[in-house]
Amino acid sequence: MWWRSPSFILDKQQSDTVPHQRNPRDTLPLPSPPPFSMADTLQNPNPENNISAYYQTRAAHHAVVTGDWLAQAQAAIGRDPDDSTDTTVATVAGKPFSVIDEFNSWRKQPELAEAVAAIRALAAVIRNCQATTMMELEIELKKSSDSLKSGDTTSISLTAGCDLFMRYVTRTSALEYEDFDSAKSRLIERAEKFGEISCKARRIIAMLSQDFIFDGCTILVHGFSRVVFEVLKTAAQSKKLFRVFCTEGRPDRSGLRLSNELAKLDVPVKLLIDSAVAYTMDEVDMVFVGADGVVESGGIINMMGTFQIALVAHSMNKPVYVAAESYKFARLYPLDQKDMVPALCPIDFGVPIPSKVEVETSARDYTPPQYLTLLFTDLGVLTPSVVSDELIQLYL
Amino acid sequence: MDARRAPRTVSDPKVRKVGFFTAPPDRSLSGPPDHRIFSFLTSPPPVVDNSSPSAGNSLSPVMIPPPRHSSANLSPLRRDSAEYFPPSASPTSPASFSDDVAAAAMGRGAVAASSSLPGGLGFDIAALKSAASSVPASGLTTVSVVNNFPIGISEKGGGVAVEMQNDQSTRSKSLKEKTTKAERRALQEAQRAAKAAAKAEGVAASEKKGGDRPQEKDRKKEVPQPRMQYDDKSRVEKAKRRAVVKQTEARNRVELFRHLPQYERGTQLPELESKLFELDPMHPAVYKVGLQYLSGDICGGNARCIAMLQAFQEAIKDYSTPPEKTLARDLTAKIGSYVSFLIECRPLSISMGNAIRFLKNRIAKLPLSLSEMEAKTNLHSDIDRFINEKIILADKVIVKHAVTKISDGDVLLTYGSSSAVEMVLLHAHELGKQFRVVVVDSRPKLEGQLLLRRLVGKGINCTYTHINAISYIMHEVTRVFLGASSVLSNGTVYSRVGTACVAMVAHSFHVPVLVCCEAYKFHERVQLDSICSNELGDPDVISQVRGREDINFLDGSSNSAILQLLNLIYDATPSDYVSMIITDYGMVPPTSVPVIVREYRREHLWI
Amino acid sequence: MPGTQTLVNELVTKLKKRRVEGSQETALLTAELLRSVISQLKVPPTNQAETLIEAVKTVGELLVAANPVELAVGNIVRRVLHIIRDEDFSVATSSAGGDDRETAEENGFRVQTVAAGPPSRSPSLHAILDRTPDSERAHHSSRDGDSFEGKGKSADRNAESWKLKHDVIRAVNELIEDINSCHEQIAEQSVELIHQNEILLTFGRSRTVREFLCAAKEKRRSFRVFVAEGAPKYQGHALAKDLGARGLQTTVITDSAVFAMISRVNKVVVGVHAVMANGGVIGPVGLNMVALAARKHAVPFVVVAGPHKLCPLYPQNPQVLLNEMRCPSELLQDGEFSDCMGVCNGSGNPLLNVVNPAFDYVPPELVSLFITDIGGYNPSFVHRLIADYYSADDLDLQKRTTS
């Protein structure tokens, strides 16, 4: 019997212990999952603390049922001194500094990307650091970024953001010519500008992609991605005539949110259930998806269902465009779907699921590069093979 | 049987039943066709057909084969070896006819005539042989048949003898290697006795049993012969000696196509015309058709086939049996010589080969009791029936099926000029469907222009383009309709050169490809690419582009040794590009072609 | 500069009337025109690079607008722009190198960009944190020029300005030389690709292909070539004649027989109109069909292309946007269908349309190999070549002209 095999039992033990290891480090109680899923998760074999932190933020930022859910989440984190609207770093200065606190407070801003939050958190580390030499600062930063990364192993852009900043600190030649204080201030200034860079990256991507959206085309999008939304918004603002098919984007149903937003912009939208992708692919001219992370092979890791859509699109000769900021490029090389740290998320089936039934709760999949046509990044329009070039230049 | 077939398919294109089911104990004559197709899907166990409410018909299709057939099933191997390695087949065979040794070994007049065919272009030989071998078959018998007699008779009653008749020719060939003349004589006597018995059982029995079992034998017998390979020097020489038309071989033959005939163009016609009145053996009607083939006045599978059959009709009308010869054999020989003449004019199409095979079968199956006059009228009406049912009626059925696949707003693409597709388009237009047609054309024939003119004349909205623009135009196309010269049993569509390109591009754009092809054009041969069998057209037409006098680069240097021109006529479209084949049997996937070929073969042999 | 103006107008008219055909000829004409524009341009003492770039861009816009589907024009304009930027950069660094390295904050910025590579290089992940949110980056090279000017170091700048122009003209000359000689370098590689007793297929007419095949022939390789005639221009006939004259075993086939013959072909070697940044190619109409057939039979599809064919743009809907319609009379003879041409159906649309596109797009998946003057490359590597040849700042050349 396969479930009695040693490897299976081992896996199971590990997956049981992982949350326990992680919980103590999370000083903030994380927002609890949406109330409607409570009843089911009780019956589901997956305990709710198994849900990846990454997907909790994501849910908070993207889900449709933001109102009451956030209120409840707010109540749950009542002892948090930071309000989510409060963005100043200084408020935490009184407490013993924790990079994870810092990061968590940053990432509550819905418009802020994870990588930006990570880099800002690291900037705060620099600010609070008592180091006197560049070397010490680097060591301190390394420690903080490691703890940030281990705090949420599932978030690719967090890891990539940390790596990028560390790379900047260790590599940028300008720093060598300056004294320590000016170097430090330069770093802090750069880190703070990074938020703008990230917003600008979205604008660049939106601009680049305009050439590819032609009048009368039909675009299929999957889930909610800020970049993709920016792309579509820009296209709508420049008076292009196009039609969007939104997938529902189960389990967090982020596609619903995108369709709401697009409807506000008067873009014709059609909502599809996730399983209707192949059925409608005939009418679709191009597929636009965002990415949680762009990996070294040029493939992407994105919300569950992206791989499926890319497969269908590929077999029907439809282009698949990925919109992703370049700070999502990560030094990962998954070989297949199981070769990643799984990010788990709750799934609401609407009906009670018997506890004997296992539920696949992975929230994302890996799409190999051969199914992608082009990547729109702030570095320009790239073919998947360029991603590795860029990463090699940065890290080797 | 065939008389019922076509109209029935018109009325209800039924979904075939697949899987095992027990036949009702008394299936009547009007049993739906699907049963029969089914029975061939599971054909290794001999299924008794439903064509008559005779005693044996209550058998289930899954019954265990009687032992008699296991011996029959063993035979093809040996028989094949006899056919494929002719020289070793029979020590008594006249050396000169080694290409048709099995038939020649029988030493019959009709066979000699058939083997005098220079063409050897596959099926026609096969057709001849099937005809030829079934004629003299009655004079031979084999041990195995005799031995199995009691077993067979217990089940089948009177039908056995007739089956045996079809059976024996294959077996006799395989046995011939071992038996001495004396033994064969004995076998012949035995078979004559058997045949007499069969006659006593009545013609009705032979009719009703024939449908099924003999078909299986025929199938084995008719494994297509290797075609004449024109790079085989000795055989080409032999063929030349027999030829009516003297062809000069092209000086610079394309290396890859050495196995195909490559003749100088334009040399035959004047010579043939001058011979018009000297050619004694050739009937003028046949002669005329031959010339029309040669000059290209008649082209297109159906047109050529109908013209040929009508010429044969004329020839048969004027035919009288010479003294001391029987009609069946002499007429077969006659037809054989006509066919070889036609081949010299232009290689036969597969559809024509099938028609010839049909005709020879009919001649062979003429009851001996008929007078010459009756036999001739019989054949005349048979040919009429073939033209009407297999071509004209079949087209109507195809049109009826195909039209259901055209809906308003469709953009239909067609390539070249196919008569079936044209009928489909016109009929859909008559029904008031709103659609647009893209006519794709290619050099050198530019047949599409003729189609375009006819369609525009009828008021259909058309777009005309050439084959290179196919990737450009395919974006807007919703259906591709193609005609076919033949559909081979691996699903390959053998058609006008360029069809494969169109189908390939359509496939890559996920546009469904529908091939309209009458079932009489199906053939059991298989072909992997377009090189192994093809027809080469006049190379000179390539060098000049009609209406484009500015393109004259190749004018002076036409066909030097170093610079050659190749004008292929056909190509083979792999079956994976074809979504659907529309035939008079309904709409079938290309994978079902072998089923139809088998089904159809039986039917047309016993029409 | 009236002299250049007439030259420009001349070429624009030629391009508009499609009197120049073939990407090589167009590329050469464009490069020569730009060279004379640069040489006749009076360079002010300040802002030389900017002035040159502006001048080239204005001419380039006109030329590109004259024939937007002739991508070679845009390619050469971008190449020349890139050359100017490159030369400007090397002049600037040679002057900036040395004592004034650590002088000012402004220079600190400059040193950084030096470390990050030439200023015109496309943005990279590496420099992402250095990127300022404003769009000033694109102009910093000129700003540097100003700052130097402001510091009163203009003494040697006059010499430098002359030097810059001189260097640019020299580099453009090299470019012209490259375009002229690319055939030879490509042809040299033929022995590695064509072997004894092989059968090759080519499509339409391309000088590069002709030289490529003949070079292999000269190396005593005996092989056979099938030439598809390439309707509607039927240039395959001309190519076949050329090849025949050079003693190659040549067979002309119709376009429709490509699929039938491809199963016996060992390699497909074609010339193209342009190579796009994603590795796709724009070629004579019908090329996609050939590529598909080659893919079906796993026959390598080799594209030979000179440097002027590399286009830094990504194709979007190339079958429509990068295409043009040729005259219908190439398909239907004059007068033959004249009675049908005028006929309209109920809604006023003509009953008969004739479609005669000039170009075809082959996606990168169908291309096996590119043979360029600097070696053989995979389609996925084309973007690298393009990054070497063009500046990211110049990519929007065409956009400006179309808007």
Distance between the termini of chain B: 6 Å
Task: State the helicity of chain C in percent bands.
Answer: 40-55%
- Structurally, the number of domains of chain B stands at 4
Low-pLDDT ranges of chain C: 98-121, 132-155, 399-403
CATH superfamily of the largest domain in chain B: Translation initiation factor eif-2b, domain 2
CATH class of the largest domain in chain B: Alpha Beta
Round the mean pLDDT of chain B to the nearest integer and report it: 69
Keywords (chain A): Cytoplasm, Initiation factor, Protein biosynthesis
InterPro entries (chain A): eIF2B_alpha/beta/delta, elF-2B_alpha_N, IF-2B-related, IF_2B-like_C, NagB/RpiA_transferase-like
Pfam family, one (chain A): IF-2B
GO cellular component, one term (chain A): cytosol
Descriptive overview:
Chain C: Residues 128-156 have a biased composition (Basic and acidic residues). Chain C: Belongs to the eIF-2B alpha/beta/delta subunits family. Chain C: It comes from Salix viminalis. Chain C: Keywords: Initiation factor, Protein biosynthesis. Chain C: Residues 111-156 are annotated as: Disordered. Chain B: Its main location: cytoplasm. The complex is a heterotrimer of chains A (396), B (607) and C (403). With 396 residues, chain A is an alpha/beta fold. Chain A folds into 2 domains: 2-33 and 44-202, no CATH class; 203-395, Rossmann fold (3-Layer(aba) Sandwich), CATH 3.40.50. Chain A contains 14 helices and 10 strands. In chain A, helix 5 (99-107) packs antiparallel against helix 6 (114-128), helix 7 packs antiparallel against helix 8 and helix 9 (180-210) crosses helix 10 (226-237). The longest helix of chain A is centred in the middle third of the chain and has 31 residues, at 180-210. By secondary structure, chain B is α/β, with parallel strands linked by helices. Helices cover 50% and strands 9% of the residues of chain B. Chain B has 25 helices and 12 strands. A 7-stranded mixed sheet of chain B has the order 3-2-1-4-7-11-12, with helices on both faces. Chain B has a 4-stranded mixed sheet with strand order 8-5-6-10, sandwiched between helices. In chain B, helix 7 (123-134) runs parallel beside helix 18, helix 9 (159-176) crosses helix 11 (203-210) and helix 9 (159-176) packs parallel to helix 12. Chain B is globular and about 65 Å long. Mean pLDDT of chain B is 69; it is low at 1-179 and 200-219. In chain C, the strands form 2 sheets. Chain C has a 7-stranded mixed sheet with strand order 3-2-1-4-7-10-11. In chain C, strand 1, helix 9 (207-218) and strand 2 (224-228) form a beta-alpha-beta unit. Chain C has 2 domains: 2-182, no CATH class; 189-323 and 358-402, 3-Layer(aba) Sandwich (Rossmann fold), CATH 3.40.50.10470. Chain C has helices at 2-16, 23-40, 48-66, 71-96, 105-115, 140-150, 157-188, 190-193, 207-218, 235-245, 258-262, 287-296, 318-321, 338-341, 382-389, 397-402, and strands spanning 199-203, 224-228, 249-253, 267-271, 274-275, 281-284, 301-304, 352-354, 359-362, 369-372, 375-377. Chain C has 403 residues and is of the alpha/beta class. Chains in contact: A-B, A-C, B-C. Chains B and C meet through helix 21, strand 3, helix 22, helix 23 and strand 9 of B and helix 10, strand 3, helix 11, helix 12 and strand 8 of C.
